Structure formats: C-alpha cells, structure tokens
Amino acid sequence: MASSLTCVGVVWAFLSFLCAAAACVGFFMPYWLLGSQLEKSVSFGTFRRCSYPVRDESRQTTVMVEQCGRYASFQAIPSAEWRICTVVTGLGCGLLLLVALTALMGCCVSELISRTVGRVAGGIQFLGG
User: Fold this and answer.
1) Is the dihedral of CA 31, 35, 36, 40 positive or negative?
2) Hey, which of 90, 105, 115, 129 has its CA 20 to 30 A from 73?
3) Any stretches that span the bilayer, and where are they (predicted)?
C-alpha cells in the first residue's frame, strides 16, 4: 500500500480521525448541561434532550417525559443561540470528518495529499475546531 504521507502525516491522520470522532460523539450526545427539574434529573445538548417537561392538557399540569429525544423541529430548539450553536457545531464536525477521512485515504493512496493540500487541510481543521 503506497502512501502520500510522511510518518508525521500518518500520526496527524489518525489523531485527526480520533478528534473528529470525539467531536461528533460529543455533538450527538445530549449531556452538555445536566440539572434537575420537577425533582427529576434532566440533560440537554444542542438538539437533543433527556427528561423534559410537557404540558398535559387533560390534567392541566406539567409532567416530565423521562426519555431522550431530539427536538421536533429546528424552531423547537429553545433559543436562537442554541440554534446557532447547533449549526456551527454541526458544520465544524462535518469539516473535521471531511479532513480526517481525506487524511486517512492519504495513508492508502499515493499522490493524494501534497504539501499544499496538507496546509489547506490544517486550515480547515482550524476552522472546524
């Protein structure tokens, strides 16, 4: 198997992949903020939440739904700041994965990554991070 990367490039490719995977897992998990509400443990992230309050119209009370799920729509995310965070973090994770997978392909394919492509990929990683 020919490679277009040096030893440092191979280490960079694998570390990039591990960091991108960790960022994506962190993005998809709803454990950004932990707390309690109505004596129940709650947590939520940018687009997922666990144990959230819902209005029960038949009993005219607020009850806790003790399950994890995503928001029904983009507009259901509680604030504009969280919506912006969802978009920016999602784009960052996408960029990190793109660079990491390209770098891993560079480990297997010769002449795929040049010095210029490596520098551009590093810049993209900086933006993605």
Assistant:
1) positive
2) 129
3) 12-34, 84-105
